[in-house]
């Protein structure tokens, strides 16, 4: 229990320390120490056995209720200040619902805090990847045009966010979960609006109202749980059967779809890309949005072999393919990464909702490896943005000559998402096998299988299209010098790459299958090839062939723009599927 | 014994390629090159002065060839079909990255097209693997070859596979990746001498790769497999002589609508 408490309190203490330390070197010392301690704590918890439970005292519960009301009032106030009716309406609706629930809430039955193996796994992702991102953000914020205090507030805010995340994965009470869910919404809102220009503000408000839909459905789920089962605890709810359990679970899963930015809610996550890059990496890719698959995994015992689970997994799978497709029309690197995050979150939710032991393990593996790879990609995108002021892939043409190392990191990130023997690829591979083995019992899984296959192919196109822009040589006229990556950026990137390799190794070894190990051979060979064939200078060089023409070279990239009609069909389709979750839950 | 076959795979593929050139010449009432022309070409290429654009570009062709060879070895050893498909994807991506890494319009467009080709045929290959799995209960080639009845249960899936064979062996109507008349060979353009030889031999291996999938539909019976391969070989060359090249986007569209529909219909039929 002390360790869990450390994970929650240490980031808060560290952020207070940071606020008092203007010296950058001192900041690095603090953050490195925190990263080390958090990583160690998470790892030793992960290897420890048993389930820890903890009952909150009366005053603590009271404080949470008070904080919750203040938080909702703040949302209401923000809606009023920026004159946003949707934000106001949803905040007011939540206030009413929350007030009503608190008036009928039964006395606590089981413990509010439960640390089980799923929470321990989440600790690993949150503290490991999250810590590295905080380390990166110090250097990133150095060039941000804002006051020094605000910079320190930003880094401190990210640390506090870590402790919120550490808390949300151990919440057993739905109401506590709701409070923390709203806290993450608040974090999204504040951090997206950090730059405080017109676009940032509009996108932040969009994130705020969309995420509040998640809050509303959680409260509705809690209401159903109280009326049906006289309890607001996840574990009591999941152990009971019959009655309206599926309705409660369906409502809670809908919150996951909102937080995971499944279509039609993907707008808020793409809008969030205007925030500083560490925010995109931390909240909108590596940790916060992982609440979506986490929540589905938590509900998996009730979702498995139910109609609700079926529809969630189909939505997830369709989102995987639709988001990959929509991403093909984008040209801003962070938006492309954002769409692919939406897609992969859909896949994780689909696997989690299938609910067999095998698919649950796969969803967990995908979560970990996705967090690592996407953090690496986002942070590299941040480096390009800072050092070369390039956000659009059209401006990144020929980046390989200007920043070879960053391009190397990005290519490595893409390879780790698509090719053997890296974890995310392995997860997809095993998922195909696993779903194929379920086909005979549940033919509806054919939809999931097909989406998985097509979506993966589209993602290959998406990633290597970006690679083509990075690799294509620039125009002859513009000659620009390569810029080295400062170590403040380099160290986090190297750490992430290191963990991707270690993770892949560990995952391969865990399979205990010699053929899976052999899958790694070609990759090793390719990396070893330059040292195997040393003497390349014995061959003469030549210029590329241009058919005798002397045209300025400009490489074309592949884009697929879907028509407005297709987009409308997609939004209406996914919108009605989202509503269908609740209807199916109510009927079954 | 099996290791000998693996070692000889490029030569085997070279013979298939040479045979194909003879066949196509006969179809067009030409004399055509001798059967061993690919090997004469090899000696010619090895004798030439090698010019390269830059070292990684040249090395990626070598890597492409060896990873492909590894894939063929995995087929001969009877591995998991899915592993084989993804190893092949890896080999293909190496070539695509190589194409992107040089400052040549043709090479770049060629890579773009290769990428679209991967996107087109990859899902069908996996669906074929899943179909074979549904009938035989295993993804392992060694197990798949112990059963039969694939052709009767998966006729539409086989048709879908037929549609992607021309993509892999670069034959009309889907030879967009090479398209000599428009993009002068695409990815291949910047290679010469010994490095071009590696790329040339990769093409032989591609023949073995895609025709192994055709062969699998014969199942237990070796002669049925052989007849299927021979039949498809003839058909593909016939179609090559009789059709014009489609545009890359059209290719993706045709595969994603027609071939995908055939495959999914067949799988749904097996399941229900």
UniProtKB/TrEMBL annotation, chain A:
The keyword ATP-binding does not apply. One of its GO terms (cellular component) is membrane. It is found in: Endomembrane system; Membrane. The chain crosses the membrane at residues 6-21, 28-46, 58-77, 84-101, 121-141, 153-170, 176-195, 207-229, 241-258, 270-296, 302-327, 336-356, 362-385, 406-426, 446-471, 483-508, 514-533, 569-587. Residues 171-436 form the NADH:quinone oxidoreductase/Mrp antiporter transmembrane domain. Residues 112-146 form the NADH-Ubiquinone oxidoreductase (complex I) chain 5 N-terminal domain. Keywords: Membrane, Transmembrane, Transmembrane helix. Pfam families: Proton_antipo_M (PF00361), Proton_antipo_N (PF00662). This is Pesticidal protein Cry5Ba. It comes from Sulfuricurvum kujiense.
TrEMBL record, chain B:
The keyword Transmembrane helix applies. It is a multi-pass membrane protein. It holds the Pfam family NADHdh. It is found in: Membrane. It comes from Sulfuricurvum kujiense. Its main location: membrane. One of its GO terms (cellular component) is plasma membrane. It comes from the Bacteria. The keyword Membrane applies. Keywords: Membrane, Transmembrane, Transmembrane helix. This is EchB. The chain crosses the membrane at residues 6-23, 58-77, 83-103, 115-135, 150-167, 223-239, 251-271.
């Amino acid at each position: 229990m002390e360790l869990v408490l450390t994970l929650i309190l240490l980031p808060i203490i560290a952020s207070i320390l940071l606020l008092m330390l203007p010296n950058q070197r001192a900041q690095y010392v603090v953050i490195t120490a925190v990263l080390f301690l958090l990583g160690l704590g998470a790892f030793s918890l992960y290897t420890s056995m048993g389930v820890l439970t903890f009952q909150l005292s009366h005053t603590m519960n009271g404080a949470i209720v008070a904080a919750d009301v203040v938080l909702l009032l703040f949302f209401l106030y923000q809606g009023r200040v920026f004159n946003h009716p949707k934000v106001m309406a949803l905040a007011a609706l939540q206030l009413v619902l929350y007030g009503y629930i608190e008036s009928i809430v039964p006395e606590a039955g089981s413990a509010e805090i439960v640390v089980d193996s799923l929470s321990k796994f989440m600790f690993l992702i949150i503290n490991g990847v999250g810590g590295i991102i905080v380390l990166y953000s110090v250097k990133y914020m150095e060039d941000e045009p804002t006051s020094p205090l605000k910079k320190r507030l930003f880094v401190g805010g990210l640390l506090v966010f870590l402790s919120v995340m550490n808390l949300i994965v151990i919440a057993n009470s739905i109401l506590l979960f709701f409070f923390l869910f709203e806290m993450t919404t608040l974090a999204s809102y504040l951090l997206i609006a950090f730059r405080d220009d017109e676009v940032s503000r509009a996108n932040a408000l969009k994130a705020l109202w969309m995420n509040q839909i998640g809050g509303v459905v959680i409260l509705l789920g809690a209401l159903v749980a109280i009326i049906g089962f006289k309890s607001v605890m996840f574990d009591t709810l999941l152990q009971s059967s019959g009655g309206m359990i599926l309705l409660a679970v369906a409502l809670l899963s809908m919150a996951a779809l909102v937080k995971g930015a499944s279509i039609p809610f993907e707008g808020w996550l793409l809008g969030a890309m205007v925030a500083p890059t560490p925010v995109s990496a931390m909240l909108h890719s590596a940790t916060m949005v992982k609440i979506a698959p986490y929540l589905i995994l938590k509900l998996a015992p009730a979702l498995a072999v139910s109609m609700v689970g079926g529809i969630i997994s189909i939505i997830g799978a369709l989102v995987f393919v639709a988001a990959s497709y929509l991403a093909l029309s984008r040209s801003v690197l962070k938006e492309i990464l954002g769409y692919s995050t939406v897609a992969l979150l859909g896949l994780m939710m689909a696997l989690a909702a299938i609910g067999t032991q095998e698919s649950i393990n796969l969803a967990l593996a995908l979560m970990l490896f996705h967090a690592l790879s996407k953090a690496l990609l986002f942070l590299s995108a941040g480096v390009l943005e800072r050092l070369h002021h390039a956000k659009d892939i059209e401006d990144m043409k020929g980046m390989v000559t200007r920043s070879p190392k960053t391009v190397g990191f990005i290519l490595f990130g893409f390879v780790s998402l698509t090719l053997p023997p890296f974890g995310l690829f392995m997860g997809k591979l095993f998922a195909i096998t696993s779903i194929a083995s379920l086909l005979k019992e549940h033919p509806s899984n054919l939809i999931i299988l097909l989406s998985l296959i097509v979506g993966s192919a589209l993602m290959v196109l998406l990633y290597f299209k970006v690679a083509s822009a990075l690799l294509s040589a620039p125009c002859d006229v513009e000659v620009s010098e390569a810029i080295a990556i400062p170590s403040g950026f380099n160290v986090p990137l190297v750490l992430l790459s290191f963990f991707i390799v270690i993770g892949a190794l560990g995952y391969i070894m865990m399979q205990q299958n010699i053929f899976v190990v052999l899958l790694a051979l070609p990759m090793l060979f390719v990396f070893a090839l330059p040292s195997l064939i040393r003497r390349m200078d014995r061959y003469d060089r030549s210029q590329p062939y241009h058919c005798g023409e002397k045209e300025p070279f400009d490489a074309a990239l592949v884009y697929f723009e879907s028509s407005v009609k297709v987009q409308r069909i997609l939004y209406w389709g996914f919108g009605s599927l989202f509503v269908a979750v609740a209807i199916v839950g109510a009927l079954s | 014994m099996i290791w000998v076959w693996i070692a000889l795979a490029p030569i085997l593929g070279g013979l298939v390629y040479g045979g194909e050139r003879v066949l196509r010449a006969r179809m067009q009432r030409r004399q055509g090159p001798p059967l061993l022309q690919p090997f004469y070409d090899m000696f010619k290429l090895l004798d030439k002065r090698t010019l390269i654009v830059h070292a990684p570009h040249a090395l990626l062709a070598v890597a492409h060839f060896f990873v492909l060879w590894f894939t063929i070895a995995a087929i001969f050893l009877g591995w998991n079909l899915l592993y084989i498909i993804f190893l092949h994807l890896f080999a293909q991506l190496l070539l695509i990255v190589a194409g992107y890494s040089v400052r040549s319009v043709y090479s770049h467009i060629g890579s773009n097209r290769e990428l679209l080709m991967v996107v087109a045929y990859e899902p069908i290959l996996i669906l074929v693997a899943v179909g074979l799995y549904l009938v035989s209960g295993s993804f392992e080639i060694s197990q798949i070859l112990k059963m039969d009845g694939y052709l009767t249960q998966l006729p539409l899936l086989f048709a879908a596979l037929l549609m992607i064979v021309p993509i892999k062996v670069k034959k009309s109507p889907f030879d967009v990746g090479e398209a000599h008349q428009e993009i002068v060979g695409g990815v291949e353009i910047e290679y010469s001498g010994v490095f071009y030889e590696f790329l040339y031999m990769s093409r032989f291996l591609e023949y073995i790769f895609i025709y192994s999938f055709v062969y699998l539909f014969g199942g237990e019976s070796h002669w049925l497999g052989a007849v299927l391969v021979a039949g498809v070989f003839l058909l593909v060359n016939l179609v090559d002589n009789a059709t014009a090249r489609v545009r890359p986007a059209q290719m993706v569209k045709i595969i994603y609508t027609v071939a995908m529909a055939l495959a999914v219909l067949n799988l749904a039929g097996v399941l229900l």
